[in-house]
Write a structure and sequence with these properties.
Length: 169
């Protein structure tokens, strides 16, 4: 087993229409506004950006994020990334009752030297740190969606235009 390899999966159930959830998740530039552990996002071009993450464990992860897929019809947002972690992450946004289910999947290999050195003894801490980050992100997204102004009849809340570029962090 490669102790530096991680797979994560989270399910977020939200009381908002899928189009509204997709629009927020597709706008990577705004993640720091609603997800506290996403400390910084800086756009490089229309399909990529630099991001910095930090949760409870006192270290920053720095990544270059590149859009791999943005498919509103299928509700799929996928990114690849390099830097302290190498791999991919994907959101799948689906209708669930009167709201939305957002499924987050991620597969990464730790490249940051400290994470590699602590891979075996630190693995439970790193997994707990990720779980904490995901719980905080869910709370932040729920609050963000609830605070968005309602759009025209039949339109999702928020801006009338779709997401501007990918970078779904």
């Amino acid at each position: 087993m490669d102790w530096c390899h991680y797979r994560f999966r989270s399910r977020w159930d939200l009381d908002a229409p899928p189009a509204a959830v997709f629009a927020v998740l597709a706008n990577g530039d705004d993640y720091p506004r609603w997800w506290p552990q996403v400390r910084e996002v800086r756009r490089i071009d229309e399909r990529s950006g630099a991001a910095r993450f930090r949760s409870l464990v006192p270290y920053d992860l720095r990544l270059i994020v590149s859009e791999a897929r943005q498919d509103p019809a299928d509700g799929v947002l996928e990114i690849g990334f390099a830097g302290d972690l190498e791999g991919w992450a994907r959101w799948t946004v689906l209708p669930q009752g009167t709201g939305t289910r957002a499924l987050f999947e991620q597969e990464v290999v730790a490249r940051k030297p400290l994470l590699r050195r602590l891979a075996l003894p630190g693995r439970p801490v790193f997994r707990a740190n990720h779980a904490l980050m995901m719980r905080s992100g869910l709370r932040g997204l729920r609050a963000h969606l609830a605070a968005r102004p309602a759009g025209p009849a039949g339109a999702p809340p928020g801006p009338a235009s779709g997401p501007s570029g990918g970078n779904a962090v």
